[in-house]
Amino acid sequence: MRVVLVDASRTVLKFVGRLLEARGHEVCAFTDGQAALDHIRTDLNVGALITSAELISMSGMELCWETRLLATCDRQIYVIMMSSSQDRHKLIEALDSGADDYIGKPPVAEELYARLRAAERVAAMQQELIRLATTDPLTGVLNRRAFFDHARNACARAQTGGALSAIVFDIDHFKRVNDIFGHDVGDLAICAVAHQAGTESELVGRLGGEEFAALLDGVGLADALAMAERLRRKMAALQFDTSHGPLTLTCSLGVSEWEPGDAIELLLKRADVALYAAKTGGRNRVIAANQRQLADVAAAGSHLRSVARG
């Protein structure tokens, strides 16, 4: 684990640093709290902060609080307050300031190691909870909520001038797959489609049922259409041996490109409308979004949208 260690005494830093390095931890040592905080801001691999309560330019309590503000769901930082004081009020203040643990100074080696093992267990549990909360349990791609969270970040980056495209796609006649081959085969098909999508994009989400979306960061419309066409061919090449005979399937795909001022919902809406055009146009094809399609769908009414699905 990469540990930021902060104490006003270089002697303490040297002593505690050696204890940490003896167990394979990577130590970044500081005598100044503000310098330590600046390092934590920029080094996303920091997993723990061990800080003395007795600092000069910034109090240990303040450093705990500021570090806690940097920690997010995607970045866990375990904070240990280190103090020579046994005052219970100081312990309470440290925990209220964002510390996860409290240890005496100078620390006893085995106690320090045990507390860091606890930090690693907590980090592992948090990572597993995040995985469960953000991953679709069937396919392993992002679930709907996590996909939209990542997609909003991608749109924010696109505001600075980068390219961004979206592909929305689903399995053609999927209801027939379930009806004829069974839901277990349907699940296999969904998983296979998700896997193939992951070969073309790092950001793939299952929006629901057999429908998926992929975001292509830094990719313009022309390249996105080429990627969608490769994906369509990969889907068409899938084959499943079932008790009811061999199964092949196809997918329809709609593609849209980010435009200035877009929210993720609008970007995906245009791709979804293009998917609708691919469905009504015969399925097993890739269609790029355009304004005429948006007008046609609005005029046709939402009931036609559900008819085209499947």
What does this structure look like?
This protein has 310 residues and is an alpha/beta fold. The chain folds into two domains: 133 residues, Rossmann fold (3-Layer(aba) Sandwich); 165 residues, Alpha-Beta Plaits. It is 51% helix and 21% strand. It is built from twelve helices and twelve strands. The strands form three sheets. Strands 2-1-3-4-5 form a five-stranded parallel beta sheet, with helices on both faces. Helix 2 packs parallel to helix 3, helix 7 packs across helix 8 and helix 10 packs across helix 11. The two termini are 49 Å apart.
Helix and strand arrangement:
Layout: E1 2-6, H1 10-22, E2 26-30, H2 33-42, E3 46-52, H3 60-70, E4 78-83, H4 88-96, E5 101-104, H5 109-134, H6 144-158, E6 164-171, H7 174-181, H8 183-198, E7 203-208, E8 211-217, H9 221-237, E9 239-242, E10 245-248, E11 251-257, H10 264-280, E12 286-288, H11 291-300, H12 303-308
Parallel strand pairs: 1-2, 1-3, 3-4, 4-5, 11-12
Antiparallel strand pairs: 6-8, 6-11, 7-8, 9-10
Helix pairs in contact: 2-3, 7-8, 10-11
What's the CATH topology name of the largest domain? Alpha-Beta Plaits
Q: What's the domain count?
A: 2
Task: Tell me the series of helices and strands, N- to C-terminal.
Answer: EHEHEHEHEHHEHHEEHEEEHEHH
Give the CATH architecture of the largest domain. 2-Layer Sandwich
Counting DSSP H or I runs of 4 or more residues, the number of helices is: 12
Subunit organisation of the chains: single chain
Question: How large is the share of residues in beta strands?
Answer: 15-25%
Identify low-pLDDT runs: 297-309
What is the CATH class of the largest domain? Answer: Alpha Beta
Structural class: alpha/beta
How can the largest sheet be summarized? 5 strands, parallel
CATH superfamily caption of the largest domain = Reverse transcriptase/Diguanylate cyclase domain
Mean pLDDT: 90
Number of strands: 12
Q: Largest beta sheet: what is the strand line-up?
A: 2-1-3-4-5
Radius of gyration: 26 Å
Q: How far apart, in Å, are the first and last alpha carbons?
A: 49 Å
Indicate the percent of residues in helices: 40-55%
Q: What general outline do the C-alpha atoms trace?
A: elongated
